[in-house]
């Protein structure tokens, strides 16, 4: 469970130098009016999900092992995976407060990661499986602009949207005997996605900008099921509530029309 605090730690570490950078840049502000307009962007990179805990109460149907009313707490650990985005947006052709140039965009994002481990009710089990996330969000981005010929443009931003999470974490006792899963935390559910970004872009030409960013995404309101799957069975055991959090490191290109 070593990655639980990673999103908050990374966000804090990146916010402080960005604030200092913006403060020093403000002193160089001039009277120019930056160009705006529509753009498209694509990015790809690494997704690093936080280890999560899903909680519920066992309510097994006939044939499913378990004790009605007993806790069902599943801790799931994830490997690093892939994240990719595509967006269309509009950058306002003006600055706010003499330094900030806002943009708004509609974005689709996809991420996936493998399950690397976990435990049920604090026990010792072997885990495998994967998780896939599809997100549609409305994002804002604020560029720090202080010169017409500025090549490096730092930015911050965020977004709100809807995420569809397809979860499949199967596990079985770590006794070296079982060769197939006995239970699984599985299902697909839709939750509220909130995200924040910090990064920098490089103006390559009048129309092309290269970007890199760190993004923290949090998806809440997820509901999965613990199911008994041994021997070809597929029987309900418990509803599980939880969330999904990840830190993504992305790089890509933006084309301005």
Output the CATH topology.
Porin
The succession of helices and strands, N to C, reads HEEEEEEEEEE
**Which class in CATH terms?**
Mainly Beta
- Mean pLDDT over all positions: 89
**Count of runs of 4 or more consecutive helical residues:** 1
Question: Overall 3D geometry?
Answer: elongated
Our estimate of the beta-strand percent is over 45%
Helix- and strand-based class? mainly beta
CATH architecture: Beta Barrel
Q: How do the strands of the widest beta sheet line up side by side?
A: 1-4-5-6-7-8-9-10
Low-confidence stretches: 22-27
Major sheet, described briefly?
8 strands, antiparallel, barrel
Radius of gyration: 22 Å
- Tally of DSSP β-strands: 10
Q: How many separate domains?
A: 1
Helix content: under 10%
Distance between the termini: 45 Å
């Amino acid at each position: 469970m070593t990655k639980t605090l990673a999103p908050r730690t990374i966000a804090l570490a990146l916010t402080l130098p960005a604030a200092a950078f913006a403060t020093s840049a403000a002193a160089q502000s001039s009277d120019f009016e930056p160009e705006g307009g529509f753009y498209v962007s694509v990015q790809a990179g690494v997704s690093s999900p936080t280890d999560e805990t899903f909680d519920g109460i066992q309510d097994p149907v006939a044939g499913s092992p378990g004790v009605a009313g007993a806790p069902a707490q599943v801790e799931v650990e994830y490997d690093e995976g892939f994240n990719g985005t595509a967006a269309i947006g509009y950058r306002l052709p003006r600055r706010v407060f003499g330094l900030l140039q806002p943009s708004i965009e509609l974005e689709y994002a996809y991420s996936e990661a493998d399950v690397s481990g976990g435990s049920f009710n604090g026990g010792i089990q072997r885990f495998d499986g994967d998780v896939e996330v599809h997100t549609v969000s409305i994002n804002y981005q604020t560029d720090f602009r202080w010169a017409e010929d500025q090549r490096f443009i730092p930015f911050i931003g965020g977004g709100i949207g809807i995420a569809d999470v397809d979860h499949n974490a199967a596990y079985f006792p770590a006794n070296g005997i079982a060769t197939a899963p006995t239970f699984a935390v599985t299902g697909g559910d839709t939750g509220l996605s909130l995200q924040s970004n910090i990064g920098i872009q490089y103006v390559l030409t009048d129309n092309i900008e290269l970007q890199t960013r760190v993004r923290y995404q949090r998806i809440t309101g997820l509901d999965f099921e613990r199911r008994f799957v041994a021997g070809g069975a597929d029987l309900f055991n418990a509803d599980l509530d939880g969330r999904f959090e990840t830190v993504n490191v992305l790089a890509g290109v933006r084309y301005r029309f």
